[in-house]
Write a structure and sequence with these properties.
By secondary structure, the chain is an alpha/beta fold. The chain contains eight helices and eleven strands.
């Protein structure tokens, strides 16, 4: 009897069972939230259920290349006991989660190749609205490269981040960048050298809002060969909500090395955004 009890306990504590139970719980909660969206009056109940099952905050990560890229990035990020990382298959998976800063610590959306959040205009609009409301309540959204490029048609996010990217230039060698003057001590660039290279193949730019803070800029001049352009920006709205944009992560013939490796400097920025109050 003692041997049988030990075997059952060992099986229960196995990574297979615990992983299966975790996925089953999230699947059930995902189905529940879709139902609750049609029955709004019960939504506070869902929040209580979620909080009962998990006292951890989640960092949700999606990229438009391959979910394995997100998993690779997650494996190299600094782990915290109170934070759980989740790689998403598609942006519409965001609609399965309660997008409240109390539960979702940060959302990272990596858009490397003009990929829309949804092919359906209405769904794309809903995703953007929920993301903006999440940030207004104090959440953090980090978006990369094409997320605010004009052809992605994320009009609401363009306004929220403070720019519609409508220019780009391909590069055949790593891009030299420098920390913006006066921002060397900003929490997002903590641990970065004053000057370094991003192993990317493209630089994007547009007209940024005046309240956008440039943290990293190109050393090379682009706009009429007279101005550097931002590579990393931050903008605050609402209840200390934070929008972070990073140029890195383009995909030409192949995914840029900054993401594919991934590059240490990119991981540093991701870690800083997660671990520090920006």
């Amino acid at each position: 009897m003692e041997v049988l009890s030990f075997d059952i306990l060992e099986f229960w504590n196995s990574s297979f069972v615990q992983g299966f139970l975790g996925n089953a719980i999230w699947f059930a909660l995902g189905a529940l939230v879709m139902w609750l969206r049609k029955n709004v009056r019960f939504y506070p109940l869902y929040i209580r259920i979620l909080y009962f099952f998990s006292r951890k905050k989640y960092v949700l990560i999606w990229n438009d290349h391959n979910i394995n890229t997100s998993e690779k990035i997650i494996s190299k990020l600094i782990k915290q006991k109170h934070i759980k990382y989740k790689a998403l298959n598609e942006p519409e998976d965001l609609l399965k989660y309660p997008l409240y800063p109390k539960y979702i610590h940060e959302i990272i959306l990596i858009v490397s190749d003009v990929t829309k959040l949804s092919e359906t205009k209405q769904c794309r609009k809903e995703i953007q609205l929920m993301l903006i409301l999440y940030v207004r309540k104090g959440g953090t959204l980090l978006g990369t490269h094409d997320i605010i490029y004009r052809r992605c048609r994320n009009d609401a996010l363009q306004n929220a981040f403070g720019c519609k990217l409508d220019n780009f230039q391909r590069e055949n060698k790593p891009i030299e960048v420098v920390l913006a003057a006066g921002q060397e001590s900003h929490p997002l660039v903590k641990g970065l050298q004053p000057s370094f290279f991003f192993d990317d193949g493209e630089v994007c730019w547009g007209n940024w809002s005046k309240d956008t803070i440039y943290l990293i800029v190109t050393k090379k001049k682009y706009i009429g060969r007279t101005k550097s352009v931002p590579i990393l920006t931050v903008r605050h709205i609402g209840n200390n909500g934070t929008f972070i944009w990073l140029n890195s992560g383009d995909k030409g013939d192949s995914l840029s090395n900054s993401l594919n490796i991934p590059q240490d400097e990119l991981l540093t920025i991701f870690n800083n955004s997660i671990l520090n109050r920006i």
